[in-house]
Design goal:
With 391 residues, this protein is of the alpha+beta class. It has eleven helices and 19 strands. The chain is globular, with a radius of gyration of 21 Å. The two termini are 33 Å apart. The mean pLDDT is 96. The structure holds arabino-flavin-adenine dinucleotide and P-hydroxybenzoic acid. P-hydroxybenzoic acid binds next to strand 14.
């Protein structure tokens, strides 16, 4: 097989990149190792930044998002017996976020690509990439029991944290930055109406909790647990009791609705950045290049921003022959990546209780949250990052 852009990975980064390139007339092929059902059912992100929503609408996959997505114009911080709502539009010149699950974004992108192109091969496991230091890289993959190759002009490594693309960069040319956190998230899906609740982030002496949702009828909730926690250790009763305590409001006026838990999982927390995001004719995008702790709801949105930047660079070269945007792709993406990692890391360490945390850290965490509740400047800084930095 031969194409202009070989895309490894059919997650949000790879699928959006393919959509943007296809609309601009740049040939590409997506190779995805899992099957369609798996890719569309993986429970992950839930919150889309304004820039992500605008991008999806702009490339023709906004219809269902506009019908079923839940716009949210504020988020609530609960801490030290207080509750403070951060109004996003008034602090960011009109920007908000939208609750629309990553599973739905992927379904919309897959459906359009299967109907309209470019080629999307499921069950295509990439084994490796050769020739990235030349202008004629080759992707080696297996598909339907056969060893195959895809010759291309550039390779987009959109294959996530556990993919193969990043490993193509020789160690001498790579710098990696890793931060592991001493706690995890127990995430549950529950058949409980979210009502008109907005996203609620709670910092509590017993640990962090987050109230989110997937639809008007399905709630998505998280609570901080120790690393290595087995979800089976947490009965429904224990989950709801812990969430009720951590999410309680000062006057007890807000009651956490309970109901059947339909899914549960434990996710570790880490930050990871790989530099550079380009090596010869290999370009990395999304989780293949970086991981952010999920507290700030940034992973999916960062993948979208990379895909937009990479598509612009590839289309620019396709139309003008200039590699100017490709040459600056890594540096310009990494500036935004590090700003986002910083914000997600700050949210994580401010809202979670470190197992060895003492009274000093308690007070500085509360002071940081008090600052957002009492200073318009601090609230605006929070809101700008939360609603999403410009792509
Ligand atoms: P993805 O990992 O989504 O996609 C990579 C694709 O490449 C996969 O489909 C994989 O099958 C494929 N692939 C891998 N190796 C391959 C190979 N050798 N050959 C072919 N294909 C290959 N983000 C948030 O914003 N909020 C959250 O709450 C949140 N929760 C998360 C929970 C979990 C358990 C995980 C793992 C991540 C979570 N994230 C969250 C982050 C997540 O949403 C990612 O940021 C997002 O999926 C990134 O998209 P991609 O870069 O496309 O990578
Ligand atoms: C989610 O709904 O999955 C979600 C929402 C907000 C976050 C993280 C995850 O900060």
């Amino acid at each position: 097989m031969r194409t202009c852009v070989g895309i490894i990975g059919g997650g949000p980064a790879g699928l959006l990149l393919a959509r943007l390139l296809h609309r601009a007339g740049v040939d590409c092929v997506v190779l995805e190792r899992r099957d369609r059902d798996h890719v569309e059912r993986r429970q992950r992100a839930g919150v889309l930044e304004q820039g992500t929503v605008d991008t999806l609408r702009g490339c023709g996959v906004g219809a269902r998002l506009d019908r079923e997505g839940l716009p949210h114009h504020g988020v609530e911080l609960r801490f030290d017996g207080r509750a403070h709502r951060v109004d996003l539009p008034s602090l960011t010149g009109g920007r908000s976020v939208t609750v629309y699950a990553q599973t739905e974004v992927v379904k919309d992108l897959v459906a359009l690509q299967l109907a309209d192109g470019p080629p999307l091969l499921f069950g295509a496991e990439v084994r490796g990439v050769t020739g990235v230091e030349s202008g004629a890289p080759v992707i080696h993959f297996t598909h339907e029991g056969r060893e195959r190759t895809l010759s291309c002009g550039v390779v987009a490594g959109c294959d996530g944290f556990h993919g193969v693309a990043r490993r193509t960069v020789p160690a001498r040319a790579a710098r990696t930055y890793v931060q592991e956190y001493p706690y995890s998230w127990l995430g549950v899906l529950a058949d409980v109406p979210a009502g008109d609740d907005e996203l609620i982030y709670a910092r509590h002496a017993e640990g962090f909790a987050l109230h989110s949702m997937r639809s008007p009828a399905v709630s998505r909730l998280y609570l901080q647990v120790p690393n290595g926690t087995d979800p089976a250790e947490w009965s429904e009763q224990r989950v709801w009791d812990a969430l009720s305590i951590r999410l309680a409001t000062p006057d007890g006026g807000w009651e956490l609705r309970r109901g059947p838990i339909t899914a549960r999982s434990v996710t570790g927390m880490r930050a990871f950045v790989h530099e550079p995001m380009r090596y010869g004719s290999l370009l990395l995008a999304g989780d293949a290049a970086h991981i952010v702790p999920p507290t700030g709801a940034k992973g999916l949105n960062l993948a979208v921003a990379d895909a937009v930047a990479l598509a612009a660079a590839l289309v620019h070269r396709h139309r003008t022959g200039s590699t100017a945007l490709l040459d600056t792709y890594s540096d310009s993406c990494l500036r935004r990546v590090w700003q986002t990692v910083r914000f997600a890391s700050w949210m994580t360490t401010t809202l979670h209780r470190h197992p060895d945390q003492g009274p000093f850290e308690d007070r500085t965490q509360l002071a940081a949250l008090d600052r957002i509740a009492t200073s318009k400047t601090a609230a605006a800084e929070f809101a700008e990052n939360y609603a999403g930095l410009p792509i």
